[in-house]
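Dear H.,

Thanks for agreeing to be a second pair of eyes. The structure we're designing against is below in token form, covering all 137 positions.
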């Protein structure tokens, strides 16, 4: 049985990794843990431990896209459990929202956060990303 409380934060830390094969292993492990059966309850219990490493990955230009993917996967997995931490992630995501190369990926991630989040998800995103337009309109 996989211990999410130990391994998932390690995988999140590894998203910033840049050396092969570590970069592949960490990102693949995060992806597979998010998609595994029963992941919602296991990952929801460690969401707060994932925010710092994901924020740091979002701050790094080399790992930004992978971090966006991870936030997207986390949002789909844990749903409203991510809501209390959206502000911390959205601040970093917003910094790249005007980059033409990243605009679509940023929009997809913010939309996933809104769609999977609770009733306050939109307002949490909008506070940090004023240019965001809801998918629910």
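And this is the sequence the design step returned. I haven't edited it by hand at all.
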């Amino acid at each position: 049985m996989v211990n999410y409380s130990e391994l998932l934060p390690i995988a999140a830390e590894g998203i910033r990794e840049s050396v092969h094969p570590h970069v592949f292993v960490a990102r693949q492990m995060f992806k597979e843990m998010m998609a595994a059966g029963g992941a919602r309850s296991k990952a929801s219990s460690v969401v707060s431990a994932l925010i710092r490493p994901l924020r740091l990955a979002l701050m790094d230009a080399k790992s930004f896209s992978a971090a966006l993917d991870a936030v997207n996967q986390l949002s789909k997995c844990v749903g409203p459990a991510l809501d209390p931490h959206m502000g911390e992630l959205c601040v970093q995501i917003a910094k790249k929202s005007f980059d033409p190369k990243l605009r679509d990926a940023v929009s997809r991630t913010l939309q996933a956060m809104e769609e999977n989040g609770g009733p306050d998800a939109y307002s949490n995103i909008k506070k940090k990303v004023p240019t965001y337009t809801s998918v629910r309109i």
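Two observations from my side: The helical segments are 4-14, 22-35, 39-44, 47-59, 64-78, 86-94, 103-116, 121-128. The chain has a mean pLDDT of 94.

Warmly,
E.
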